[in-house]
Design a protein that fits this description.
The complex is a heterotetramer, with 2 copies of chain A (about 160 residues) and 2 copies of chain B (about 375 residues). Chain A is mainly β and about 160 residues long. Chain A is built from no helices and 9 strands. Chain A has a domain of about 100 residues. Chain A is globular and about 45 Å long. Chain B is α/β, with parallel strands linked by helices and about 375 residues long. Chain B has a single domain, classed as Peroxisomal Thiolase, Chain A, domain 1. Chain B has 12 helices and 12 strands. In chain B, strand 5 and strand 6 form a beta hairpin. Classes of the chains: A mainly beta (about 160), B alpha/beta (about 375). At the B-D interface, helix 1 and helix 2 of B face loops of D. The structure holds zinc ion (ZN) (2 copies). The site of one zinc ion (ZN) has 8 residues of chain D, from loops.
Chain lengths: ~160, ~375, ~375, ~160
């Protein structure tokens, strides 16, 4: 797939196996995403680039039942996000939890602990007619559920 | 170091007031609080203001008197009132000033807040992708909490129903119609598992509190309420917070937990002594989680406590007796002072139809907001 | 009660930085101040932030570390830094905290400020009639002052020329080109008697200060500077102030006079001891009037003092040695901390080309802004 | 002259001799303009209506060399305000100083202490085609200069 990333330095692109670009602190080792000028744990400047694993599990999720306002610039409906659409916190084992759009899912099959993998998806067409792409997570048929899959609670 | 007493409270009811400036509402709340305390504005040594929409709430002096006093404006989102109370408390403790006014006022005209993500240290793409929304964070946080601790959606509905029931008997509430759990569950799903009626809405209003050196409180009132402690905290690395593009796997408590611990310690009072709580119920899920975060129960006990009515006005530990944010809406700068207004009203036994059967001696007020700030105050009579 | 020391300062130079968020500039200034002090962010107990454009400067923790510290945002217009310093000083004096960061940041992208008059307690018609402007107030205030005290327009031009001359030798200034008095007088008349080059402009930047309990200052620096006092005041009835639809005939001093009196008294230092001053020079007229308002001279003495070069870097009482607002512009939340940055830099003898011949021992910083608030701080080494 | 006042309760209108409507504090006697809910000196609520004198002198003034932005809604140029236009603080003897637009003046003849009188002037045409009027002060040929007319300073 071609396309221009929604932001520089966010994920490796173009790539057959894209990865999110995080930061790793030289002092305390904390990971962060995206990479910032400083470490969010200890404040040391200049975390170095760290490519985050492309597979993980769903730590939590919610639906979004209304279209967001500005500065949202994606498409809603036909060819874009459905309403409701879904967002989650994805745990990359041993690394970090990343907030992301969830694609290829519905309220019925979303489960905390389900395996997910990073995908790059079309986002919008920019003023110059180029396709802008962004990252999301999609169900990973080859993945493993997280070890803590048991739901204590039940939906009402 | 002087103790700090609250000797007057005033509220401009929260709601919708087209054409009425926020500062006008603020002036009315200030006058009510001063009259309640029996203090003349010219006797007030300092003031603290808080507002989202009005950059400089101190401009209210044009309406209530240009006395020349120091008037500091603070802003920490939904936790603004905590910062304001903390500053007022410090000024009295330092002994430089004896009487102060704390004022919150705001006017949010419909719809959710919009802002520039970079003003919250979030990247631009985060906003472009539709992620710069607070409500979806609350949906994600309570969804995980339900998974971990067995909280049910029925419990969320019960929390919201209690809020509307309390609002119905509070003449100053914004939402005064009781709603059933069924109606709440059947309303539109905004952010799973949170439905429309489980959320509060931004609105308009003002609240004010007059504080003084406790040594002179008896000059003004027979029923002083003491502000034992106020603690404010930001989030630590590892806490799962609003507008976070990522979170660490190492888990640390939410800022409310840290603020509550500090506030209890400073007050020399434990959570088991609390008899009334005002908690940040931006949505029903937040009230459930904040009950545990301020130590009123263990994680997971909320289902049974709430089903048994423990948090209703006649229950063991009433929460949000005036209907909270859900029934009053949230004018951000004023919201936390409405909590204090309600605690003081209950502690004085003047809450009318919603008065607790036993006038409470110890109360806690808790605030939480973007981008991950919390405030907890302990009051006693 | 502990004394309060300033052990580090940091500045993100003021200017124009398209695409660079205010919080990014704030993070850089904070890092510089921490490095200057030799303090790790994880050792900072509390922080205070100030900004006009960024509602919650505490969001900077996402850039400099989520340590969980209490981080209070304050805002009092152009006097914001005074409120922030006062709050930091109080927290150290109470003994609860020992090391704090005070941070100001802002990003005003071109043009004058626009706002809703009712948010400043001014009526709607006042804005509709084109009266809701700060600059015309400054024109009116200095015009009357010139009438009463014989100040000339040449004196105003000299003040502005000094600002540009100081900016020219300050590598961090925004305006680095010296301008002659003739050029300044010949520039477009904006608000009689004030011409275009007599005004500062809003811009972008950040400044930070690390403060601590003076008892531990020696751990971090050999050249601590002490924050002796900070006083903030609002206007009294009778003072002629910004956005005033009317003024009383009974005359009272401007809020700067009240704040200065309180600050000198609290510091136990008189204006005759001041060796360097940073004054709010929103325009050249303001610098002239503020000289008298903080007690550096009597009303009317400014013509002779300024003509004799008394306020230049090598003069008797240097004013705005870094070029002040006129040469640096005004990112509102940061501006007052730039003043402190310059006082500390001069008091440490590290001001390079603009260093005063004798390293000063006593300095004063003064701020004034809408809707009539002032702050005065006294520093010593 | 007809026309709709720019705001209610601001000046008596229609009237051959219009007056600004101020407030007088029942507790401390302080005057204010316009009338507010509270006294700007002592904070007492409910100042009563006080009609302010229509004649005064110029306490200070300035020019406005650029057109103001929103919420300004008057006309600039032809039939409206000139650029520069003028604004002053007008002292009503024994009462109050009022900030106001100055009309019928130029930079050359403006002098601190000069006598002025209240006038009502056209301001704009509103959406319904009605003429909106507002208040200003104009030179008063019958008035007296203030007693403190002497200018200590000189223009550069
Ligand atoms: Zn680190
Ligand atoms: Zn009065």
């Amino acid at each position: 797939m071609a396309g221009v990333p929604i932001a520089d330095g966010l994920f490796t692109w173009p790539s057959d196996e894209p990865r999110l670009i995080g930061g790793s602190c030289g002092r305390c080792g904390a990971l962060s995403f995206p990479r910032r000028a400083g470490c969010p744990r200890c404040g040391a400047s200049g975390p170095v680039e760290h490519l985050i694993g492309a597979r993980g599990t769903l730590w939590t999720w919610t639906s979004q039942g209304f279209a967001p306002k500005e500065p949202f610039n994606g498409a809603i409906g036909e060819g874009g996000l459905g309403v409701p659409w879904y967002v989650g916190l994805v745990e990359i084992p041993g690394e970090i939890r990343v907030e992301a759009l969830l694609t290829g899912v519905s309220e019925e099959d979303l489960r905390i602990g389900m395996p997910l993998r990073l995908v790059v998806v079309p986002w919008r067409t920019d003023d110059e007619g180029r396709e802008v792409v962004t990252f999301a997570f999609a169900p990973d048929p080859d993945g493993q559920r997280s070890s803590e899959t048991e739901e204590v609670g039940a939906r009402a | 170091m002087p103790d700090v007493a609250i000797i007057g409270v005033g509220l401009h009811p929260f709601g919708r007031y087209p054409g009425k400036p926020a500062l006008t509402m603020g002036a009315e709340a200030a006058r009510l609080a001063l009259a309640d305390a029996g203090v003349a504005w010219t006797d007030v040594d300092f003031a603290v203001g808080g507002s989202y929409e009005v950059d400089q709430p101190d401009a209210v002096v044009a309406e209530i008197g240009l006395t020349g006093l120091p008037f500091t404006n603070v802003y920490n989102g939904c936790a603004t009132a905590g910062s304001a109370l903390a500053l007022a408390k410090q000024q009295i403790e330092l002994g430089e000033h004896r009487i102060g006014l704390v004022l919150g006022l705001d006017k949010h005209e419909g719809g959710a807040f919009t802002a520039d993500p970079t003003s919250y240290a979030a990247p631009e793409w985060y906003g472009e992708m539709g992620l710069f929304l607070t409500t979806k964070f609350f949906g994600m946080k309570i969804n995980r909490y339900m998974h971990d601790h067995g909280i049910t959606q029925q419990t969320l509905a019960r929390v919201a129903a209690k809020a509307y029931a309390n609002g119905a008997i509070n003449p100053q509430a914004f939402r005064r119609k009781a709603l059933s759990e069924e109606e709440i569950l059947a309303s539109r799903m905004l952010n799973f598992p949170l439905t429309h009626y489980m959320f509060c809405t931004p609105d308009e209003g003002a609240a004010a509190v007059v504080v003084c050196d406790a040594a002179i409180a008896h000059r003004y009132t027979d029923t002083p309420v003491y502000l034992r402690s106020v603690a404010t905290r930001t989030r630590r690395y590892g806490a799962f917070e609003v507008h976070g593009t990522s979170a660490a796997i190492e888990h640390v408590p939410a800022p409310t937990v840290d603020a509550a611990k500090a506030a209890y310690e400073a007050a020399g009072i434990g959570p088991e002594e609390v008899q009334i709580a005002q908690l940040q119920d931006t949505d029903a899920g937040n009230e459930v989680m904040h009950m545990a975060e301020v130590g009123l129960c263990a994680d997971g006990e909320q289902n049974d406590l709430i089903a048994a009515g423990a948090t209703t006005i006649t229950g063991r530990i009433p929460v949000n007796t005036d209907g909270g944010l859900i029934a009053n809406g949230e004018p951000v700068g004023a919201s936390g002072l409405r909590q204090v207004h309600e605690l003081v009203t209950q502690m004085r036994g003047r809450a009318g139809d919603r008065q607790m059967p036993t006038v409470p001696r110890v109360g806690v007020a808790q605030l939480y907001g973007a981008p991950g700030v919390a405030a907890v105050s302990i009051l006693t009579r």
